[in-house]
Design a protein that fits this description.
By secondary structure, this protein is mainly alpha-helical. The protein has 43 helices and five strands. 65% of the residues lie in helices and 2% in strands. The strands form two sheets. A three-stranded antiparallel β-sheet has the order 1-3-2. A two-stranded antiparallel ribbon has the order 4-5. A hairpin with a 2-residue loop joins strand 4 and strand 5.
Length: 929
């Protein structure tokens, strides 16, 4: 193969191809609509259900949750009503464990835990007593030496309770049922200990679960003795069908329970075994529950007593479902009678000794009272009448705030809304003495948020009364807690002027409170969040003179960042307009975006930077100054100066200016277009990623040509050429290393397409000097010669060179005189192009040899065919050098090509159909090879 071939272009007139046409009735890309006919008796979902059933599967997490609920409720024992109570209690139980925690040290007294301080609670005085005591110890399985384990943390206490639960199961499985009974008794005795009051609700939940498990063990044994392995539900148990042996065993358990001397464990154990009465007489159950309700009166501590009532009602609900709701009401009435004991001086002294505040102490009663109210309300068809009765009790009782707090929280919103004026009057009269004031106001406010918008007759007077109460609250934390729902109420019910007044009052309160607002960042953020989500027009909020001062009350960097992020996130969630045009809103949002941008530093994680950039980009894209091009561009200039740290924001700005540039066109004058071009040209170098810089620089060059700014286009294309060597082979995107070859090849192809219409600078002595510079740059880039990116770029450069030799180019831009008009097929210009084509052709031959040396035969064959096609379509095959090169390329490709190579066949067919003498001679020679 010769070492040198001179390229000779063959300019050809533009052909018109007559392609076959086919008449069609529909557009080939239009999606077809499928008309589905369904039965009139079925809905769409019902009709499709049978098709989706094979693919439906329960979420594994939901499956485990359902299994957990089934296990807690007991297998085969649950009615539909019972499930409702069980689920309700399970959710409350979790909330109690999360809320009522402690850092104090706890104590467990038990015979069945290893370690601890051994304390013999039983004193013996003589030898006979000692012998008797030892014999009792043997009877008791050596377990009557009581151990007192003190100094337990909360987690250690929970672990010990779980250990006792496991000990009950182990003892039961090893036929030591008396031992299991004694462990359950000792667990119930722990509920008489109120030495750490603030943990008492959680302790009750833990121990009541142990008692439930013990009761289930006894019940399952009795059921098995009565009915064997038959799966039978509670309502199906008939005491007349229970064998005498099973009845005797049941009575034995009940006698054991009745022999417990202390009242509290006896009550708890009887409640845990309440199901067992089904095996003796179902009729005894309800009288027994009524008896237990009255027996609880004997418990002197009101906190302990109310949780015993909770356990009794919970057990009754599992037995009777909706039929148990009368017991809820009865126990609630009993609690009302015992209510004054809560404020007895002895109780005040006890919680005072534990350094509990009054509101902390009263909050311990709320879970139990809420549960009693829950069942009571389910049994009451007319809740409004019941609420009136309870509110009357509040008015007639001293220290009724606990009751009021529970009532407002438990009743449904329509009832509370109807009695809101009465409730607010009660609060107003006793506000100075109420320690649960914030909870009551918060609950009332949440109900009022459910009122129909602008329909409540006394909304403004209610809000004014609320403000009089709240503005005198001493605790800032409580004030903000109460403010949150009432701010939502004002948004839904009241005017923007009233909302602005509340905001001003809040600012005054925060300034007067004496504490820095930074201490209440979370609460203020919650208030602002409610405000943004429920104000009718979110843009109007920024026009209120008190909103931005409230947002900027917090001063620490982290607090300001969190607040700005909250405001911008919610604003753009609710922003419904196409554009933001108001200058005040733009200024406020710009301030918040600057706060977010300034929070970015070297240690900021990538996800945080992305979130900040996304919010700022939304702001930039939303702002519009309509037809004022100069002001719009000035806004983008300010944004570039403010958000220089974030590349994605700079990219958004360049695209925004490019869109402005395209929209402006020639109507706004050459000066405005050049200003936009200068903005893009100056901003692009600030970007860190060379690939992005190259893409945006090329875009700017194309827009410059569209606006007939040839000088700016030339400068941008020069910049692009200088950027190509800087583009790395791999870039980091989404925490992954991704190759850039395909994207670089696309950019180069786009660049070469743009060069076709760029006229040469007449002040330059060289022809096609930007293309010449690009070719020289490619020679300096250390691309691997066998890399597809390299030789494909050479092929596409050759395509451009051949196209530039034509009399008329394939496309033009109006107002831009391209080189076909500028040179008019000048021979000197064509010689320069053919010289470049010759050099590229020689380089491609070098690449072919390198591919052969590397044994990459498939790539070599494809490249030879690509170059062969360019010769027969764009070269002068009548020239001997070109014909010789074509024949050699065909010969080279034939060595490795498949006999069924469709590409090679199509090339040969194209050559055969070419009527020119040179092409026909070449075809004859190739055909004979």
């Amino acid at each position: 193969m010769p070492t040198y071939y001179k390229w000779v272009s063959a300019p050809k007139p533009k052909r018109r191809h007559d392609y076959p046409s086919l008449e069609v009735t529909n557009h080939p890309l239009k999606s077809e609509l499928l008309n589905l006919k369904f039965s009139t008796n079925q809905t769409l979902l019902q009709s499709l259900k049978k098709w989706s059933l094979p693919f439906e599967e329960l979420d594994p997490l939901l499956r485990f949750e359902q299994m957990d609920l089934d296990n807690e409720a007991g297998p085969g024992d649950i009615t539909v009503d019972e499930i409702n109570y069980t689920k309700a209690w399970n959710s409350r139980r979790i909330a109690i464990l999360n809320k009522y925690t402690t850092g104090e040290k706890l104590t467990i007294i038990s015979s069945f835990l290893p370690g601890g301080e051994k304390t013999l609670l039983r004193q013996v005085s003589n030898l006979n007593d000692k012998v008797k005591h030892r014999l009792e110890q043997l009877d008791d399985f050596d377990e009557s030496s009581i151990r007192k384990t003190m100094g337990l943390s909360q987690q250690e206490f929970v672990t010990k309770i779980h250990m006792l639960d496991e000990e009950i199961k182990k003892a039961w499985d090893t036929e030591q049922r008396v031992k299991a009974f004694k462990i359950a008794i000792q667990c119930s005795k722990l509920l008489s200990d109120i030495s750490v009051m603030q943990f008492y609700p959680s302790k009750f939940v833990l121990i009541s679960n142990v008692l439930d498990n013990f009761g289930m063990l006894v019940f399952d044994r009795l059921k098995k003795k009565s009915f064997g392995d038959k799966d039978i539900k509670l309502e199906e148990i008939d005491s007349n069908l229970v064998p005498e042996a099973a009845k005797e065993t049941c009575q034995n358990w009940l006698f054991k329970m009745a022999s417990i001397r202390e009242l509290l464990p006896r009550l708890y154990m009887e409640m845990s075994l309440l199901k067992c009465y089904l095996f003796t007489s179902r009729e005894e159950l309800k009288p027994t529950i009524a008896r237990l309700t009255k027996m609880i009166r004997g418990i002197g501590n009101p906190l302990v007593a109310v949780y015993v009532r909770l356990y009794l009602c919970n057990t009754a609900a599992k037995l009777f479902g909706r039929d148990s709701e009368n017991f809820f009401y009865d126990n609630l009435m009993e609690f009302f009678d015992d209510y004054p004991q809560i404020f007895h001086p002895a109780m005040i002294k006890k919680y005072g000794a534990q350094l509990l505040t009054s509101d902390q102490y009263l909050s311990l009663y709320i879970p139990a009272v809420d549960w009693l109210l829950y069942g009571t309300l389910n049994a009451t068809p007319c809740k409004l009448t019941l609420l009136e009765e309870f509110l009357e009790r509040c008015q007639n009782k001293d220290n009724s705030e606990l009751l009021l707090c529970c009532f407002v929280s438990a009743f449904d919103s329509p009832s509370v809304i109807k009695k809101s004026s009465v409730i607010m009057d009660i609060i107003y009269k006793t506000a100075d003495e109420m320690v649960l004031l914030s909870q009551v106001l918060n609950s009332l406010g949440e109900h009022m948020c459910q009122a129909e918008p602008y329909r409540h007759p006394s909304s403004e007077s209610l809000s004014q009364t609320w403000w009089k109460i709240a503005s005198n609250m001493r605790s800032t934390n409580n004030f903000l807690q109460a403010l949150e729902p009432w701010m939502q109420f004002a948004c839904v019910q009241l005017s923007s002027q009233h909302i602005n007044m509340l905001l001003r009052g809040t600012i005054r309160y925060m300034i007067k409170c004496g504490s820095p607002a930074d201490e209440y960042t979370v609460q203020i953020q919650a208030v602002v969040n409610r405000l943004l989500k429920h104000v009718p027009d979110v843009e109007e909020l920024f026009l209120m003179d008190a909103f931005m001062p409230l947002v900027e009350l917090v001063q620490t960097a982290n607090a300001r960042t969190a607040m700005a992020k909250t405001v911008l996130s919610v604003f753009f969630e609710r922003f419904t307009s196409v554009q933001i045009e108001d200058h005040i809103i733009i200024s406020s949002l710009m301030r918040l975006c600057c706060i977010l941008h300034d929070s970015i530093n070297a240690v900021t994680v990538e996800d945080e930077s992305k979130l900040v950039a996304e919010l700022i980009n939304k702001f930039i894209q939303a702002v519009s100054y309509q037809d004022d091009l100069e002001q719009q561009l000035n806004f983008y200039v300010d944004c570039r100066a403010a958000f220089i740290k974030l590349d994605s924001v700079l990219v958004t700005l360049i695209h925004a200016v490019s869109a402005l540039w395209s929209r402006a066109g020639a109507s706004c004058g050459r000066g405005a277009a050049r200003a936009c071009g200068a903005y893009c040209f100056v901003t692009s170098p600030s970007l860190q990623c060379p690939l992005t810089r190259a893409s945006l620089t090329l875009q700017a060059a194309q827009l410059s040509l569209l606006n007939c700014c040839q000088g700016q286009a030339e400068a941008n294309l020069k910049s692009f050429v200088s950027l190509v060597p800087e583009i790395p082979q791999y870039i980091q995107e989404d925490a992954q290393k991704k190759p850039t070859h395909d994207r670089v090849l696309g950019l180069i192809s786009n660049f070469l397409s743009t060069l076709l219409i760029l006229p040469d600078n007449m002040e330059s002595n060289s022809k096609a000097y930007i293309l010449s510079g690009f070719i020289k740059t490619m020679e300096r880039i250390h691309w691997k010669k066998t890399d597809a990116l390299y030789y494909t770029s050479l092929l596409r450069t050759m395509d451009l060179l051949c196209e530039m030799t034509r009399d008329t180019y394939a496309y033009h831009i109006e107002g831009v005189m391209s080189n076909d008009e500028l040179y008019g097929c000048d021979r000197e210009f064509i010689d320069v192009l053919e010289k470049h084509a010759t050099n590229i052709c020689q380089e491609l031959l070098v690449v072919l040899k390198a591919l052969g040396d590397a044994k990459e035969n498939k790539k070599q064959c494809n490249l030879a065919l690509d170059l062969f096609w360019r010769i027969i379509r764009r070269g002068d095959v009548s020239d001997g050098s070109m014909a010789s090169l074509a024949m050699n390329l065909w010969s080279l490709s034939k060595k490795h090509q498949d006999s069924n190579n469709k590409y090679a066949k199509s090339l040969l067919s194209s050559l055969e159909q070419d009527p020119s003498p040179g092409s026909q001679r070449l075809y004859e020679k190739i055909k004979d090879m």
